[in-house]
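Task 17 of the worksheet. Students: predict the tertiary structure of the chain below and write it out as C-alpha cells. Keep your answer in the requested format; marks are given for formatting as well as content.
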Amino acid sequence: MAKKHCMVCDREYEYCPNCEKTKAWKSIGCCPEHYQVHMTLENLRQGVFTKEEATDSLKNTCGITVESDLSYMIPEVERCIRDEIIGYKSIKKKNK
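Model answer:
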C-alpha cells in the first residue's frame, strides 16, 4: 500500500495501484465523489463540459450546489468550482 493525498481535499489515504476495483478513482481522490469533482473540473477545462454541464455533474454526482460548504476542499479547487462553475450564494442585506 502506498500513501497518497486527495487532489480535492488533500486528505492522506492508502492507495494500491494493483486493486482493479478502486484503481481508477483512488489514483485521484480519497473517495468516488472527490474523483468525480476532479473529473468534472478536467472535463470543463478540456472543453468536454460546458459550465452548465459541469454544474449538473457536480449536483447530480456529488450533491454540490451554490449553497454547499466547500471549505473542506483545497483552496484552489474550491475557488475553481465557485469562480468557474457554480458561483457564489448571494447574501441578502437587511434594510434599516
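Marker's comment: Residues 32-45 form the longest helix (14 residues). The mean pLDDT is 89.
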